[in-house]
Amino acid sequence: MLRIHSFESMGTFDGPGLRLVVFLQGCNFQCLYCANPDTIPIGKGGKLIEEAEVLRRAISERPFFGKRGGITFSGGEPTVQAQALIPLCRQLKEEGIHICLDTQGSIRNAYVDELLSIVDMVLLDCKHVLPEGHRRLTTQSNVNTFATAEQLRQMGKPVRMRYVLVPGYSDQPKALHALGERFGSYENIERLELLPYHTYGKHKYETLGREYPLEHVHEPTPGEVDAAREILEQYFPVVWTQ
After folding, report:
1. How would you class 2 by CB atoms within 10 Å of its CB: exposed for 0-12, middle for 13-18, buried for 19 or more?
2. In sequence order, which residues have a C-beta less than 8 Å from that of residue 215 and are 6 or more positions away?
3. Bridge partner residues of 74 (DSSP)
4. Nearest to 122 by CA among 151, 101, 153
5. Of 17, 76, 131, 214, which residue has the fewest beta carbons closer than 10 angstroms?
6. 133 has pLDDT over 90
């Protein structure tokens, strides 16, 4: 059984082509800008759904995927449930369905290793390169994210790296240059996805009776996004933004 928060059909921002996006429940990070705070609790929340139902749904939507689309496991943090995902992903591969894993790469164990070996592409979320900046945003270390990035490089696994641009938190030129210097030479990173911070999930904090952590932070302006992209384009051959 998988603990699933929700599904999204015809997703266009979570990997190549049109995709069925499965948002899994549970995350070990506490990101200040989390747009889905209700997916954070581990072992509770969401709905328990049989893996066979996810497979059935993916097969039924396969005609819409075309040659480029497929299924993406997101969250939350999907590797929290890596053990349960392994047999499902093996079945999806037998059906010829392309699999993306959207992860921040902080959970490292034998189950995650096996899962990484099965999926076709990893959407690796790098929250911040500088240790103090990463802890400020997530409460956690970024050491394991770096280790996972290197592991994926050694595997030759296709990666799209994701970086959320948060004014005052992750938009400093020092941080952006550090990101490029760290990962710009990774030949398996197909592109750097620069994602402007947004407040779409703010209402969810109100529903949960919680204060929104970044009430004082504005969404980046087009000029701020362009300035960040200009820095990152010095290091990455492809910088994509929404």
Report:
1. buried
2. none
3. 23
4. 101
5. 131
6. yes
36-81 pLDDT, tens digit each:
899 999 999 999 999 999 999 999 999 999 889 999 999 999 999 9
Reported as a single tens digit per residue, the pLDDT across 191-219 is: 999 999 998 878 888 888 888 889 999 99
The residue with tokens 């076709």 is 120
The torsion of the CA quartet 173, 177, 178, 183, rounded to 10 degrees, works out to 140
User: What angle is formed at CA 128 by the lines to CA 160 and CA 23, rounded to 5 degrees?
Assistant: 55
The pLDDT value recorded for residue 208 is: 84
| Upper half-sphere CA count for residue 238 (Cβ side, 13 Å) | 12
One-character DSSP codes across 162-227: EEEE-TTTT--HHHHHHHHHHHTT-TTEEEEEEEE---TTHHHHHHTT---TTTTPPPPPHHHHHH
At residue 137, the 3 state secondary structure works out as helix
Query: What b-and-e string marks burial along 56-77, b requiring 16 or more CB atoms within 10 Å of the CB?
Result: ebbeebbeebeeebbbbbbbbb
Q: What's phi and psi for 39, nearest 5 deg?
A: -90, -5
pLDDT of residue 1: 94
14: how many CB neighbours lie within 10 A of its CB?
A: 21
96: left (phi over 0), alpha (psi -120 to 50) or beta: left
